[in-house]
Write a structure and sequence with these properties.
The chain has 204 residues and is an all-alpha fold. The chain has helices at residues 3-11, 14-22, 27-46, 53-78, 84-107, 115-136, 149-165, 168-203. Helix 5 runs antiparallel to helix 6 (115-136).
C-alpha cells in the first residue's frame, strides 16, 4: 500500500545518496548499517523499563534503519551498483532486522501475552517469503497485501510514539496484535492472488 510513497521518498534521496557515495559507502555497506541500527533499536526496546525515554530512542533508531533501507537502493541505481546478490543480501538482512525488532519488543515485556509477538514475527517473515516464491514463479507481488514492510514499520513507529506517552505495554500489545492479524492476512491475500494468477495462466 505504501510502496508508491516509498518510491517517492527514494526519488528525493539523491543528494543523500551522493553524500553517502562520497563517504565511500556502498549499497551493501548501507544495508549492513541499517541492520546494525535495527539491532540497536531492538536492544533499546528490550531495555525500555530502565527509562521510558528509551521508547523514543528505539523509534528513532528504527527510523534510521528504514532510512538506510531506502538509501541503499538509491545509491545502487545512481551509481549502477545494483546486482542480483545485492538484492538478495538486502532482502535477507531486512528479514533479520524485522525479526530483531519484534524480539526486542517481546523481550522488553511490551507485548503481553507474548505469543502475539511470535505470530507477528511469523506473519512478517511469511509475507516476504510469499513474495519471493511468487516472483520466482514469475508473478509480481509488489503492492499486493495490506501489510508490506513499510506499513509494518509505520505501525510500530506510530505505536511506539503513543506508548512513550501512554501505557506502553497496552499500546504495544495492541500494535503487535494488529500486526499479527494483518501480516497473516496479507499472506492469505497473496496466496489467493497467486492461485488466481496461476489458474489464469493454465486456462490461457
Amino acid at each position: 500500500m505504501l510502496t508508491k510513497l516509498k518510491q517517492k521518498i527514494q526519488s528525493m534521496l539523491v543528494a543523500e545518496a551522493r553524500a553517502a557515495h562520497k563517504l565511500g559507502l556502498t549499497p551493501n555497506g548501507i544495508t549492513i548499517i541499517g541492520l546494525i541500527l535495527a539491532f540497536l533499536s531492538a536492544a533499546v526496546y528490550a531495555m525500555w523499563q530502565y527509562n521510558q525515554f528509551f521508547l523514543l530512542l528505539a523509534t528513532f533508531l528504527l527510523l534510521l534503519s528504514g532510512f538506510c533501507d531506502a538509501l541503499d537502493g538509491v545509491v545502487a541505481r545512481i551509481y549502477e551498483q545494483a546486482t542480483v546478490f545485492g538484492g538478495f543480501f538486502d532482502s535477507l538482512l531486512d528479514r533479520y532486522a524485522d525479526a530483531a525488532v519484534y524480539v526486542g519488543i517481546v523481550l522488553g515485556g511490551l507485548c503481553s501475552p507474548s505469543y502475539w509477538g511470535m505470530l507477528a514475527i511469523i506473519g512478517s517473515l511469511l509475507v516476504s517469503y510469499s513474495r519471493a516464491r511468487a516472483e520466482a514463479a514469475g508473478i509480481k507481488m509488489e503492492s499486493i497485501g495490506l501489510a508490506e514492510r513499510a506499513e509494518r514499520m509505520l505501525i510500530i513507529v506510530v505505536s511506539s510514539l503513543v506508548a512513550w506517552q501512554f501505557q506502553p505495554t497496552t499500546v504495544m500489545t495492541i500494535a503487535l496484535v494488529i500486526l499479527a492479524i494483518l501480516t497473516n492476512l496479507t499472506v492469505l491475500q497473496r496466496g489467493i492472488y497467486v492461485y488466481a494468477r496461476l489458474k489464469k495462466k493454465v486456462a490461457g
